[in-house]
Every structure is written in C-alpha cells, then in structure tokens.
Amino acid sequence: MRTIEWREGTVITIDQNRLPHETVLLEIKTCREMAEAIREMKLRGAPLIGVAAAYGLALTAYHSRARTREELISELEADAEMLRKTRPTAVNLFWAIERVLERARSTYGDVEAVAKAVIEEANRMADEDVEANRAIGRHGAALVKDGDTILTHCNAGALATVDYGTALSVVRFAKEEGKNIRVIATETRPKLQGARLTVYELMRDNIPVTLITDNMVGYVMAQGLVDLVVVGADRIVRDAVINKIGTYSIAVLAKEHGIPFYVAAPTSTLDLEKTAKDVVIEERSPDEVTTIAGVRIAPEGVRVLNPAFDITPMRYVTAIITDRGVFPPDKIEV
Ligand code: MRU
Fold it and tell me: How many structural domains are present in the chain?
C-alpha cells in the first residue's frame, strides 16, 4: 500500500505516531481532520504533507454543498488557510496548496467540474511524487558503491512520501542494483523518526540497518564506519538545506571526516528564490523534549528549546539529488 490513498471521499493513511508498535489505518473524511493529522504528525515528512494537504482540499471539494463555482473556490481558499497554519517549515505544503488552488481557479464550468479537477490534481500529485522518488533513487544509487555504509537521519523513507522515500529511495535502488549496502540510522530525538520509522521500514525490506543515538555520529564517523551520508530535506533554499534538527551537526561532522554529504529531495522541495533567513523554523511543544514515549525524564518547570528543523549552509553539502539528476549545491536545475 502507498502511505496515502484516496478512496472516493476518504483518505486512508497510517498513523505514524503509533508505529512501529501498532499499525493503525486512519480514515480521514474532512479537511479539518487532515489539518489535525498533519499538525499532530500522524502523517509527516515534507513530500507526504504536501500530498496530504492536496488531498485535504480534495475532501473539501468532494463533500462540498456549494451551488456555484465561486462558492466552492471560497471554501477551498478558507480550508487552504487552515492547512497553511499546520506546519511552517516544509515548503511542499505551501507548494501543494497553491497548485491545487491554481487548478481550481483555472477550471471553468460548474461546481462539479471544479471539484473533479481538484481531486484529479491531488491524485496526479500523489502519482508524480512516486515517480519523482523513483527518479531520485535511480540518480542517487549511482553515488553508492558496493559495500558502502550510508548514514541517514530522521525518516526520509516511504513513510515520509507517497512511496519509496527520497534518501531511502537511494538506498532501495542501490540494493536493487545488487550492491551490498548497510545503513546507519540515527534515532532522531525528540520524535524518534529514525528509531521508530526508518528502522521499521528498512527491517521490513530486509535492508541491513544499525540504530545509533544522535550523539554517536562523531564516534562512528571517526571509527571509519560511514562511507556517505544521505538525508532528505524540508526546504532547499539558495544558501542552505533545511531538514530535521540534527542534520547540521551531521553535515559538519561529515566535512571534518571527509565523508560526502548528500541531500535527496524532489523539485517540489526547492525554494530557490528564498534564503535561510526567510524560513520559519517550527518550534514544537516542550513536552516532546521533557518526555520519551510519554514518560517524563526532566524535572517539571525546566525551560526547553524544541526547534524541529535546522539549517545546513550549502558549503557542507556535497551534492543535491533531485528527480532531475545530481547537482552541485550552487547549480541546481529546477
Ligand atoms: O518533522 P518531520 O518528521 O515531518 O520531519 C521530516 C524530515 O525532516 C525529513 O527529513 C524531510 O521531511 C524529508 S522526507 C522525504
């Protein structure tokens, strides 16, 4: 199954907060429920939240009782505003919302014609995501040699996209090409996407994976246990890559140890008109830091910082792998 699917007025996805212990399928029926699911990270990962937002608007269109085209477009615009407020950092969310609104606004005819176009656009974006990830995998696999160990951070896998993943698509294609590869996955505090999701995905696919805590990266690199790093991205701006908190530290360590640091992302993650100073870094609840799996680990009342993403300047990035190819960071083709 794909991570997200449209079934006639319902969106089916997996509750990622419950993985790996429980596989719970969610049936999302309204755009409001979709916005909640994105905010609470039941579904997460930049490409996936983009497609999820598009499907949120498809739900609005499908269930709308609007009598005119204009009324439906107003409803879509109101729900788009609700979706924009869910998570600020991944550009895919905003890109997807604009693309669906643009499709609605440029469709003439009755309400049904606009609704049909919106649903079609969301489905097309889901299909395109799968194709983009397969292309990323093909281009990226050429950078991986037989016997390599790839370190990855967070979850840039099938669960963060519609299918295949971005960084993990590179891993999957390298394996498919018959290369004997291994993965080191960082646990990714505070939400543990590495330990819970990346490890789960790779073990399910029989790809050898070793889990480490985030603070072990320097040690394993110094021991010569890492050949290359491949991570995903939430937004790629002109001067930096914005990705899960901890990415910057890994990139600096990779440079220190002469290890290539690659970023894999579809073109929908590119925001090259902007620079890092234009990007809002999401700050999440202190509870994510003061607890682990619901158990409190820090004294009540402690002051906490919880930025969900960090900024890696391009000088640390060896190359960007997109669906169009592999590019030096200052020469990305859109
Ligand atoms: O907070 P999350 O889990 O949505 O963050 C996800 C990441 O940072 C991923 O690395 C990124 O979205 C790329 S996913 C293909």
Answer: 2
